[in-house]
């Protein structure tokens, strides 16, 4: 529910109605600007009568938000959410952001080689898995905290930000010194305790991947868990959904970008690597992501994919990534979002 105050409403008018609502157990999200006083009512508002609120002095109108996700809704916030990282990367504005790196952190030397090449090609965010959720318990599970330390040390050499996947809430404090963005993987999209803990215990951005079988509404409801817990810096990531098709690893739902832009103010990036599972498709899917209006991509790259410890088949070689970046920069010259 959104309450818009009149132009001449006073601070006392605002405090009176918000105090009334908080005493009833509702949360208040103040979205006022210099020229407009407006706030959202957070909670189950089915029993709340808009006419009762319009009786308060200074209230202009009260609007119900029909979607179950409130804070993530475009109805609640008309302007796009823009996230600025410490290295100057801006996500959600006119910049097409490229995140690139290995599926798994394998060694300092390997990560250094990848980051140096990725940065030179134009990527500003280094991705890499230190903790790896694998289908098989016998597969490489990641280097753990040592992997995070490598990511941070290497990224700092090239003024890159770091994004890495977190798998449980007991790792939040361990991740905090090393990452600029926490990543929630597809398997944890509905791990509500992890979502709530991240929302409450960090203000760093959260990259929320879509569950492999999740609807867009379920995806946005997961974002709502993070935002309702106190962290509004959420970046959505479409990584392909599971369908009956077996030729590709997943089916990239590129229309999800357009749907999210209509339904939500949150930025959205695409992961073409996990969507296709084939390195030969990454370049065209990345260009399609750019053309459809995504805010960026997250891509897996490796100097020797044939010997990568995980996901080599969907990793671009460094020279191929550099070639792709050239094409993305060229394409961006005729699009709203630029590769900078």
Automatic annotation (TrEMBL):
Residue ranges constituting the DAHP synthetase I/KDSA domain according to the UniProt record: 81-333
Start and end residues of each DAHP synthase ferredoxin-like domain: 1-66
Molecular function in Gene Ontology: aldehyde-lyase activity; transferase activity
InterPro entries the record matches: Aldolase_TIM, Class-I_DAHP_synthase, DAHP1/KDSA, DAHP_snth_FXD, DAHP_syn_2
This protein's record includes keyword Iron-sulfur: no
Domain of life: Bacteria
Keywords, ordered alphabetically: Transferase
One GO term (biological process): aromatic amino acid family biosynthetic process
NCBIfam families named among the record's database cross-references: DAHP_synth_Bsub (TIGR01361), PRK08673.1 (NF006421), PRK12595.1 (NF009239)
Protein name: DAHP synthetase/Phospho-2-dehydro-3-deoxyheptonate aldolase
Annotated organism of origin: Acholeplasma brassicae
């Amino acid at each position: 529910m959104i309450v818009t105050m009149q132009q001449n409403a006073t601070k006392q008018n605002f405090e009176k109605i918000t105090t009334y609502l908080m005493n009833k157990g509702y949360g208040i999200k103040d979205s006022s600007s210099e020229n407009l006083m407006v706030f959202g009512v957070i909670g189950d508002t089915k029993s709340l009568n808009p006419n009762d609120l319009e009786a308060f002095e200074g209230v202009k109108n009260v609007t119900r938000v029909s979607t179950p996700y409130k804070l993530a809704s475009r109805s609640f916030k008309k302007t796009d959410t823009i996230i600025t990282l410490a290295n100057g990367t801006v996500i959600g504005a006119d910049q097409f952001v490229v995140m690139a790196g290995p599926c798994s952190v394998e060694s300092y030397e390997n990560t250094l080689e990848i980051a140096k090449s990725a940065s030179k090609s134009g990527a500003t965010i280094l991705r890499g898995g230190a903790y790896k959720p694998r289908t098989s318990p016998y597969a490489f599970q990641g280097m753990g905290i040592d992997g995070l330390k490598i990511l941070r040390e290497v990224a700092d050499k090239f003024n890159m930000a770091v994004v890495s996947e977190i798998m449980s809430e007991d790792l939040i404090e361990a991740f905090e010194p090393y990452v600029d963005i926490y990543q929630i993987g597809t398997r944890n999209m509905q791990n509500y305790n992890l979502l709530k803990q991240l929302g409450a215990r960090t203000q760093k951005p959260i990259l929320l991947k879509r569950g492999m079988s999740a609807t867009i509404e379920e995806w946005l409801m997961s974002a709502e868990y993070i935002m309702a817990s106190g962290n509004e810096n959420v970046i959505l990531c479409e990584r392909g959904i599971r369908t009956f098709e077996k030729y590709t690893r997943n089916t990239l739902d590129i229309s999800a970008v357009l749907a999210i832009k209509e339904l939500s103010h949150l930025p959205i990036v695409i992961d073409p690597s996990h969507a296709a599972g084939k390195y030969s498709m990454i370049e065209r899917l990345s260009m399609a992501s750019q053309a459809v209006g995504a805010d960026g991509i997250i891509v897996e790259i490796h100097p020797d994919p044939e010997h990568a410890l995980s996901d080599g088949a969907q990793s671009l070689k460094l020279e191929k990534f550099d070639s792709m970046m050239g094409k993305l920069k060229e394409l961006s010259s005729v699009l709203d979002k630029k590769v900078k």
